[in-house]
């Protein structure tokens, strides 16, 4: 009978411990992912030699498609100019906003 | 004899209790952390140091995004130059502007190597960015801050210059 009581107490204690552990594990340890950039291997716009080559396309261009592509050289329209200007403005605005907000954040 | 049989069980019980108390006690203790001085940062607690480190890491990640967008901006700028060349025959000021911009991005990337090394060393912190050594952690923050600030100024200046050059070109077009 005593053994049973001890075994019961032991089980109870184990359940308590399990409960405590569960509570602790529920709070996730806050962490940030490791930097995406490796030492001495910063991302650049140019492709590196290690990047996987694109699979060669099996479909050969149709003979009529090539001269058409060579012939068509459209003059830039006002739309092209406005499009690229808008792109540049948007990207510049976004980057400047990001840099400014970081400036404010760090002064706090 | 019966007591001797129970002895291992009792020992096990006490061991388990000791382990559980050791695990739980720091969590319930909640003693206020001491703020200790760090050269260049003033008095800081471990939690404050950890938050400062996480903030610098977020800054570093944000700079990665800025650099990625900077390359996109440069590509868009090149496309715009092509359009302008077809239209005017020459877009030399824009070509100079974009080459200056590219050079600045590359400078920023080179300057980031130092910050990258400091983050990789993670000196004074464990893998979850909790403090292992107060002084060393503080020094890491001071060092990385200087490096990130340098990159920040390069990027800031590069964007300002590009906008200035673009505006000058657009004004010239209107005149």
Which keywords apply here?
heterodimer; A: mainly alpha; B: 175 residues; mainly alpha; two-stranded antiparallel ribbon; 4 helices; 2 strands; 81% helix
Give a description of the structure:
- The complex is a heterodimer of chains A (108) and B (175).
- Chain A has 108 residues and is mainly alpha-helical.
- Chain A has helices at 2-26, 65-71, 78-107.
- The longest helix of chain A has 30 residues, at 78-107.
- The N and C termini of chain A lie far apart (67 Å).
- Mean pLDDT of chain A is 68; it is low at 46-51.
- Chain B has 175 residues and is mostly helical.
- Helices cover 81% and strands 3% of the residues of chain B.
- Chain B has four helices and two strands.
- Chain B has a two-stranded antiparallel sheet with strand order 1-2.
- In chain B, α2 runs antiparallel to α3 (92-121), α2 (46-88) runs parallel beside α4 and α3 packs antiparallel against α4.
- The N and C termini of chain B lie far apart (109 Å).
- Chains A and B meet through α1 and α3 of A and α1, α2, α3 and α4 of B.
What is the strand and helix layout of this fold?
The complex is a heterodimer of chains A (108) and B (175).
Chain A: H1 2-26, H2 65-71, H3 78-107
Chain B: H1 2-29, E1 36-38, E2 42-44, H2 46-88, H3 92-121, H4 134-174
Antiparallel strand pairs in B: 1-2
Helix pairs in contact in B: 2-3, 2-4, 3-4
Brief synopsis:
Chain A has 108 residues and is mainly alpha-helical. Chain A has helices spanning 2-26, 65-71, 78-107. At the A-B interface, helix 1 and helix 3 of A face helix 1, helix 2, helix 3 and helix 4 of B.
- Tell me, rounded to a whole number, the average pLDDT of chain A: 68
Q: Nearest-angstrom radius of gyration of chain B?
A: 28 Å
Mean pLDDT of chain B: 86
Helix/sheet category of chain B? mainly alpha
Task: Tell me the Rg of chain A in angstroms.
Answer: 32 Å
């Amino acid at each position: 009978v005593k053994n049973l009581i001890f075994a019961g107490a032991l089980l109870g204690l184990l359940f308590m411990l399990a409960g405590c552990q569960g509570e602790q594990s529920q709070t996730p340890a806050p962490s940030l992912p490791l930097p995406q950039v490796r030492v001495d291997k910063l991302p650049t716009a140019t492709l590196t030699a290690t990047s996987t080559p694109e699979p060669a396309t099996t479909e050969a261009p149709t003979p009529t498609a090539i001269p058409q592509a060579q012939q068509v050289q459209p003059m830039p329209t006002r739309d092209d100019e406005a499009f690229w200007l808008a792109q540049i403005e948007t990207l510049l605005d976004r980057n400047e906003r990001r840099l400014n907000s970081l400036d404010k954040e760090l002064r706090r | 004899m019966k007591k001797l049989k129970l002895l291992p069980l009792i020992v096990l019980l006490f061991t388990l209790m000791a382990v559980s108390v050791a695990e739980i006690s720091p969590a319930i203790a909640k003693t206020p952390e001491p703020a200790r001085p760090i050269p260049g940062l003033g008095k800081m607690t471990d939690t404050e140091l950890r938050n400062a480190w996480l903030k610098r890491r977020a800054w570093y990640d944000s700079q990665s995004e800025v650099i990625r967008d900077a390359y996109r901006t440069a590509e868009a700028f090149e496309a715009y130059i092509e359009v302008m060349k077809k239209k005017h025959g020459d877009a030399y000021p824009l070509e100079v502007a974009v080459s200056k911009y590219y050079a600045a991005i590359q400078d920023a990337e080179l300057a980031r190597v130092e910050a990258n090394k400091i983050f990789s060393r993670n000196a004074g912190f464990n893998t979850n960015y909790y403090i292992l050594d107060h002084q060393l952690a503080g020094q890491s923050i001071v060092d990385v801050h200087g490096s990130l600030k340098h990159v920040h100024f390069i990027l800031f200046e590069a964007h300002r210059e590009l906008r200035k050059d673009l505006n000058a070109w657009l004004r010239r077009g209107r005149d």
